């Protein structure tokens, strides 16, 4: 009996080992990345030594429908870089997925740069292009310096992206990422210093269901939709995200987040600070039969000269437990129809706080207009003083829980701290 059990255990261990697949080393066992992919079988891993990979065989890479993994051996994408060396005269990108690859097809811990692909509705992605329902998983990658956007997905390519950075990529629309007709999920990703000539400096979506968690949009630039531009989407959900120092340059329709055309856009526990628009711009705008929802957000320090911080244009919206305070040069909010507002603090916006259609909501449902008493916004600390009217169950909002995205973080002796230090506490 014991012998039989031992044999069964050995068989199971053997099958488990076999299921992990073979590791193919590049350049140790295969000279190029594409050679490694071609030699790989389903479930294998192509592992890249540190270095910069260029020229044919190391760009325009194609999994050809195989579910396998391409990753750096070191786990450091800054030390293992695929440089496509593309140009306006000679277009190249790092990877193309177009043969039905699924989530088990993975890119992990790679630097991806130098791609150049003129984008249109059917093409794009100087870094990675996904099409025809191909839905790879992308983890820990660093997309930088690509033209045509770092990542472009269309036609049912439902990618999952985590722990990736999109830095200094550019395009006409969707400088960091462009998504069309897909359902996508991003976790712990950073979109920084990307640019778009027209819209979507950080990301542009069309016909997309998108969920984002703990992501950051920092310093992106576009004519409109500097951080995020969504047109004719489905449901767009952002939770625990930061939008900071983004710049929208147009006048009259510049905005940081744009939900346009039958989109439901929901932000939960998000922080939107120190963004800037052109004249008559907007912080967040919904239009063309779109809905807006804000839950537990902190919106402060955003400059919208002669503009408006929040515009819910045509349909009803919902705002609860949110701070809209100290946004220079702008009106706090405009709504086309009545919105449901509760436990919200609108204060210190120079062109008006509780005005227009939202004026009757002040003083009911826990809505207030008082200094939120941030601990130290000069160093990016938007947690609350213990005596803040936005602290949980504090007068005069005793019926409300926490207002804003940040908890109580200081008492009478206010200590200066940094954004990163505050984030580590919660």
What are its keywords?
3 helices; 43 strands; Pectate Lyase C-like; 12-stranded parallel beta sheet; 426 residues; disordered C terminus; mainly beta; 13-stranded parallel beta sheet; 38% strand
Q: What does this 3D model show about the protein?
A:
With 426 residues, this protein is mainly beta. It has three helices and 43 strands.
What are the SSEs and their pairings?
Layout: H1 2-19, E1 23-26, H2 33-39, E2 45-48, E3 51-53, E4 61-62, E5 69-72, E6 80-83, E7 95-97, E8 106-108, E9 111-113, E10 128-130, E11 137-139, E12 142-144, E13 151-154, E14 160-162, E15 165-167, E16 170-173, E17 177-180, E18 183-187, E19 190-192, E20 195-199, E21 203-206, E22 209-213, E23 216-218, E24 221-224, E25 228-231, E26 235-239, E27 242-244, E28 247-248, E29 255-260, E30 264-268, E31 271-273, E32 282-287, E33 291-295, E34 298-300, E35 307-312, E36 318-320, E37 323-325, E38 330-335, E39 340-342, E40 345-347, E41 374-376, E42 381-385, E43 408-410, H3 419-424
